[in-house]
Write a structure and sequence with these properties.
single chain; 86 residues; mainly beta; Immunoglobulin-like; four-stranded antiparallel sheet; 0% helix; elongated; cytoplasm; cell projection
Length: 86
């Protein structure tokens, strides 16, 4: 049986949360740099809670040691308070 190892270190820039502020009548995009600062190859995957509104490109991938990728996180335009919630 394969030995389980903890994941390596992942850094992000910015290293805090991102916030999409009003107005929501235009699409807004922020860029996040994800850096594999470990000595191992890692895989990543980003999920959203609202796929109609939020998107990430690329949503998944593999990073070699010391490699980085720039992710585009987008919030599409919408009418605040006028959407149906299920």
């Amino acid at each position: 049986m394969a030995q389980s190892v903890p994941p390596g270190d992942i850094q992000t820039q910015p290293n805090a949360k991102i916030v999409f502020n009003a107005p929501y009548d235009d699409k807004h995009t922020y860029h996040i740099k994800v850096i594999n600062s470990s000595a191992r190859r890692i895989g990543y995957g980003i999920k959203t809670t609202n796929m109609k509104r939020l998107g990430v490109d690329p949503p998944c991938g593999v990073l070699d040691p010391k490699e980085a990728v720039l992710l585009a996180v987008s919030c599409d335009a919408f009418a605040f308070g006028q959407e149906r919630v299920f």
